[in-house]
Amino acid sequence: MAKNKKTEKEIENEKSERILEGVAIWTSYYRENPQRFVKDYLNVNLKLFQKILIYEMMHNNHFMFWAARSIGKTWLTALFCVIRCILFPRTKICVASSTRSQANEVLSKIVDDFMKMHDWGSENLKREISYYMIGSNKAEIHFYNGSWIKVVTASDASRGNRANVLILDEFRMIDKATIDKVLRRFMGDPRQPAYLSKKEYNPDDNPNLVESNIEIYMSSAWLKAHWSYAKLKSYAFNLLGGREGYFVCGLPYQMSIKEGLKKRSEIEDEMSEMDFDEITFNMEMGCLPLGDNEASFFAFDDISKCRKLQTAIYPLNINKNAKIPNLVENERRILSVDIALMASKKHKNDASSIIINSAIPTNSNKYIANIIYLENQEGLRTEELALIIRRLFKYYKCTDLVIDCSGVGMGVIDALMQDMIDYKTGEIYPALSCCNDKAMADRCKVNNAPKVIWAIKAYAQFNNDICILLRSGFQNNRINLLVSEFEADDILKEKIKGYETMFDGEKMEYKSPYIQTTLLIYELISLESEVKGTNIRIIEKSGKRKDRYSSLAYNYWVMCQLEREILEKSNNKFDMSAYAKNIGKLNKRPILY
After folding, report:
1. 53, 216 in Cβ contact below 8 A?
2. CA angle (559 as vertex; 555, 561 as ends), nearest 5
3. Are strands 352-361 and 420-421 parallel, antiparallel or unpaired?
4. What is the pLDDT of residues 490-521, one digit of tens each?
């Protein structure tokens, strides 16, 4: 009996089924082995550590990566987004960071790197993507299979978004409350592939078929006192405890060197520079979090909450169009200097730290310290440093000048107590005199010189008092510091014309006060204390600094003295005429009775 011939439709259906079966097999294979998909379909060659990370990102629903700068975490994150969106249709990915520009970098890597590789891998990717838009207000990439990647703002304004994958880039810079109350709430429903609507794949009968949503945390290392470190420890605890779905690792700069992503000589050059900051390097390049210890005197939590100020002030040569605001009533603009003249290459804890505090009075007759200017100077001669101080004092309309007069500081004070010529402008700065020490004031030989210099002569009791006073200032929210350099990027884009098109060096000059503030915080929380007799002594670790701490502590102490001299006196003045006019009212029984 002759076999029945298959119709063309049956042949076509069989062919279609074989293709779909092959697609299913290869999709399953690549989902299990995403590092192979990267090579086979996207034509991207990965380093061994990148293959491992991509695999772990795909197979864990809680992933955390602490990465050294230049190791390519943003590039790797972008690659994962592409893999996930292609292999898992209808995937929704939301990317958040402390600034939209930072989050946009993930999408920019896809468009500017992967889609422009000029090979068949990039052509494959282009065939997957139906639409993309990367702007300051909207950044999205859509795929033909229904998947998409979207940048969201890390704030309450993002409520209502939905995602199957949440990526938090530089998550340490995002407020934890925003992550817990807004961003993590995006992940309400898991991805819903179409086959789950069939009876044989009913999720109620087959709960293992329901995919888990994914959270990915990416950042460089930060401080032990910060919530991000507690998050890392909780991930590590679950990973080591055998709980499924958790992965965490940190890769320092040595991995970048080993894999050829960064030259060893570049690291060595950076370490050899006089202004090399070991603390920042260890965190950002070494994945070593900086933390409080039992001997620490200042707590990170007390200080970090004081980072509120958005606007810094700059030297005249950086922002020539800046207008220095006039003093408000009873404001004191205090310039403080902890003096050292040796360069830090030889004396690693020697630098002259200059701080300007715009002390603004409140209704309760207290000053609030606003630290708006920070700068460190190294390797200057006495007269050079004195000229810089005098120039800043006049330009920023300062009212008080605080100087440590021990050691080399005496030479700087003597220079300030004479008329001084600014050789850049030809301007003559009149001599200044001392207001808190008669013997120091007598060193000034210029009659009627303004008495604005506070000469600091530190001794055990004084050092005890200023460290306690400064810690109390942070704890009681009486000190405002500049926001982080990461938040400053978006602020500077709005305030400084042409900021986005500047070279990196120019941008760094504008970000310098914010970076100096971060360095101040690192310095404060690294300081240790010991009790000597009845006094507390602040100690810097070997090779570390405390110049910024000293300058700030002197500055804040002077502000508190001025508070008693000016604000409390003005509050205690007795106005007899006003009292006489109101005496009748004061003696009347209140209406309540």
Report:
1. no
2. 120
3. unpaired
4. 888 888 888 888 888 888 888 999 999 998 99
3-class DSSP assignment, residue 533: coil
Residues 6+ apart with CB under 8 A from 234: none
Cβ(225)–Cβ(299) below 8 Å: yes
- H or E segment at 490? helix 485-495
Strands 129-134 and 139-143: antiparallel
Counts for the chain of helices (H) and strands (E), in that order: 21, 20
Q: What is the pLDDT of residues 130-158, one digit of tens each?
A: 999 999 889 999 999 999 999 998 888 88
**How many degrees, rounded to 5, is the angle at CA 529 between CA 526 and CA 534?**
165
* One-letter-per-residue 3-state SS of 178-234: HHHHHHHHHCCCCCCCHHHHCHHHCCCCCHHHCCCCEEEEEECCCECCCHHHHHHHH
Cβ 440 vs Cβ 374: under 8 Å: no
Question: How many angstroms separate the CA atoms of 382 and 196, rounded?
Answer: 78
Residue 249 neighbours by CB under 8 Å, 6+ apart: 53, 64, 65, 66
Torsion of CA 579, 582, 583, 586, to 10 degrees: -120
Residue 246 and residue 257: Cα distance in Å, rounded? 27
